Amino acid sequence: MKQAKQYIAVDLGAESGRIMLGTVTGKKLSLEEVYRFSNGPIKEDLSLRWDFDKLICEVKTGITNAIKQSNGEVSGVGVDSWGVDYGLVGEGGVLIDNPYHYRDSRTEGMLEKAFELMDKRDIYENSGVQFMQINTAYQLLSMRLANPKVLARAKKLLFMADLVSYFLCGRGYAEYSLASTSGLMDMRNGRWSKEIFEKLDLPMEIMPEIIQPGTVVGKLKNELCQEFGCEPIDIIAVGSHDTASAVAAVPAKAEHWAYISSGTWSLMGVETPEAIINDKSLKYSFTNEGGVQNTICFLKNITGLWLLQECRRQWHGEDIELSYAHLSAMAEKAEPFACYIDPDYSGFLPRGDMPARVNNYLAETGQRIINDKGQMARVILESLAFKYRTVAEAIEDITEKPVEILHIVGGGIRNELLCQFTANAISRKVITGPIEATAVGNILIQAKATGQISSLAELREIVRNSFELKEYEPQDSRLWDKQYEKIKRY
Questions:
Q1: How far apart are CA 407 and CA 386, in angstroms?
Q2: 255 burial via Cβ count (<10 Å: 0-12, 13-18, 19+)
Q3: Are 220 and 235 within 8 A, CB to CB?
Q4: CA separation, residue 372 to residues 12, 330, 331 (Å)
């Protein structure tokens, strides 16, 4: 291990962005949040978009703060973001339009249109990606059908984190883990799938070079160095899909473990050496996403705390202020196992009145309506925990290996009630931490790129040395087992 080095992580989430300053020294990482800002969609031309000018402005403010905090001694900057969304760069390297938000309604019905053009099984064989209407492939198909003139102006497609890096260093590329979320890449060889582009009639020529996480892709632009008051800094492609960086930071040391990256979405899966594309993975709708160090994040995308976030947003609009801590306390006191919902029900995907949608689901499935907010929160949390059990069982069936320990990382671990419910539901030990797993992975992948860290195992050892972890043992397992058998009918 070489001398202490400092790195900046630009960690972009669908609700907020964070600029973190990390110092790697010895076998430890110290992490400091230097800037945080809200992030979310805007309404533009009757569609949901990302305000990219605002996003870049916030990123620049955060980097400026981090450079000042570091006394200008920064060894790298890495950017990560959510997957699937992209911007189109046109003539002169200019962003054509604000990028669409993945919850925009334009992708409704696009799965069915895609299956008319290419057999569903063939798409999965070529991409290895779970079928979700938000995937880049179906966003692009929608654009080809509805806005072909805009698509024709595009010279390059850049995914969100890569788009930010492009504006920092001027190089356009597709980082492997982020590209893998698109449904446009052949996960067996890590290249764009010519067959998918041809069958869906999509322009393959706008797709950039795919590069691996841990690649130094360029230097901070001179004009930005002047603006920030710094010397040129390496821009490093990390696990630019936030899940890839988060999974890299899972502090596992046992052999048979699974993970959940918990937040707005819950990404639950296992780390594998190669893609798993077969009848069972298709049946259970699993996805193969790129990881770091030649690994695959074999996982399932689950609607996570989005349900509770949208309930809270609705109640806030009704002038009812409830913190997440308050909601959890109310949920803990509510009746157990009152109702059940499938968190992945398609009606829960768009923004809107989530309490009403939950009650519509309950009415349609012959269950009672919920008026108590604490009760609704408990139903959501219990349902998520049961969903995790379903996915854990599917993982074991597909891989033919046991899941003995479940690691949960990310902001969702602040909801300790959900963590305990998860241990109860899956009847396995749950280990949580770190909260800022994505930023941790981002920074430590940069450290590996500069030669400070030699392996993924060493990276995870540093995580264990640096952050407090919490363990949850299963409680009332028989009761949860009995209830799990009941909910299968929904």
A1: 16
A2: exposed
A3: yes
A4: 34, 9, 10
In the chain, the domains with their CATH numbers are: 5-242 (3.30.420.40), 250-433+454-490 (3.30.420.40)
- State the catalytic residue, choosing from 85, 242, 397, 476: 242
Residues ≥6 apart with Cβ < 8 Å to 138: 107, 110, 111, 114, 132, 183
Are the CB atoms for 16 and 36 separated by under 8 Å? yes
Nearest to 424, CA basis, from 343, 336, 357, 490: 336
Tokens of 211: 């590069």
Rg (CA), the chain: 22
For residue 466, the tally of other CB atoms under 10 A from its CB is 19
> CA 401, CA 371: separation in Å to the nearest integer?
42
DSSP H/E element including 425: helix 416-426
- Return all residues near 117 (Cβ < 8 A) that are at least 6 apart: 199, 200, 201
φ, ψ dihedrals at 322, nearest 5°: -135, 120
CA atoms within 13 A on the CB side of 478: 0
pTM of the shown model: 0.92
Distance CA 31, CA 23 (A): 7
Q: What is the rounded distance in angstroms from the CA atom of residue 359 to the CA atom of residue 30?
A: 45
pLDDT tens per residue, the chain (490 residues)? Answer: 458 999 999 999 988 999 999 999 989 999 999 999 999 999 998 999 999 999 999 999 999 999 999 988 999 999 999 999 999 999 999 999 999 999 999 999 999 999 999 999 999 999 999 999 999 999 999 999 999 999 999 999 999 999 999 999 999 999 999 999 999 999 999 999 999 999 999 999 999 999 999 999 999 999 999 999 999 999 999 999 999 999 999 999 988 999 999 999 999 999 999 999 999 999 999 999 999 999 999 999 999 999 999 999 999 988 888 999 999 999 999 999 999 999 999 999 988 999 999 999 999 999 999 999 999 999 999 999 999 999 999 999 999 999 999 999 999 999 999 999 999 999 999 999 999 999 999 999 999 999 999 999 999 999 999 999 999 999 999 999 999 999 877 6
Give me the phi and psi of 441, to 5 degrees please. -60, -40
Q: Which residue type occupies 186?
A: D
Question: What's the rounded Cα separation, in Å, for the pair 319 and 238?
Answer: 41
Annotated catalytic residue 51: no
Beta strands in 86-207 (DSSP E): 86-89, 156-159, 174-175, 185-186, 191-192
111-115 contacts at long range (C-beta below 8 A, 24 or more positions apart): 111/138, 113/141, 113/145, 114/138, 114/141, 114/200
Question: What is the β-pairing status of strands 215-219 and 210-211?
Answer: unpaired
